[in-house]
Recover the amino acids of this structure.
């Protein structure tokens, strides 16, 4: 059973397009996150949600819009994609503050 | 904002040699977690350190939290090829905000 699942695994698209990444966790966790990992492997937090409420929006351009329809799902929609958006996007979940994060397998986004 | 730096950035070792990565912060660390990311994989939680001076062991891995809570380290004894990957520390910096270190990429030569 996959604990945190993301789709799609790969996403190749052109500049200016809009795309979405979906994330679901079956761990019963209250908190979900989006992280961006660039080509140098730096992991940067983008958003965190607790019980469907946005907690952290880490100075991410407003072209990125997360949505949490329920506490098991956190989707990421990106408008007007730019070359610099190319990265691996990881969804993660955790049970409360200070608990370990469980990561999904990542979505590799390539913008051409 | 808080910066969490890890050194070295890269490390190549011969199989059987020891390896250490250091995690340093510009501010006091509150709750350090360590993760391992295999090539092409996702970060996987290894351990959590909370108390000043804390030392924890997992088989060949030893984790330490500095006395002043400004640094942490991960030491691997007698590396194996299965240890290959990128090791990250992460600090809980505020509500539901984990700041990840810059990572150390380990290559083990057989």
């Amino acid at each position: 059973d996959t604990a945190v699942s993301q789709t799609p695994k790969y996403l190749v698209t052109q500049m200016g397009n809009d795309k979405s990444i979906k994330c679901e966790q079956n761990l019963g966790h209250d908190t979900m996150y989006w992280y961006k990992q660039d080509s140098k492997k730096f992991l940067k937090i983008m958003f965190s949600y607790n019980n469907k409420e946005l907690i952290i929006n880490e100075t991410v351009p407003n072209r990125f819009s997360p949505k949490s329809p329920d506490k098991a799902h956190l989707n990421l929609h990106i408008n007007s994609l730019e070359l610099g958006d190319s990265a691996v996007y990881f969804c993660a979940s955790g049970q409360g503050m200070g608990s370990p994060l469980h990561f999904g397998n990542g979505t590799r986004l390539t913008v051409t | 904002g808080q910066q969490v730096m890890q050194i070295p950035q890269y490390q190549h070792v011969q199989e059987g040699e020891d390896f250490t990565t250091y995690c340093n912060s510009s501010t006091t660390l509150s709750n350090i977690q360590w993760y391992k990311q295999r090539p092409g994989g996702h970060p996987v939680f290894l351990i959590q350190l909370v108390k000043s001076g804390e030392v924890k062991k997992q088989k060949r891995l030893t984790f330490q939290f500095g006395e002043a809570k400004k640094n942490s380290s991960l030491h691997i004894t007698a590396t194996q090829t299965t240890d290959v990957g990128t090791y990250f520390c992460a600090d809980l910096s505020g509500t539901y905000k984990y700041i990840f270190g810059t990572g150390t990429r380990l290559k083990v030569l057989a």
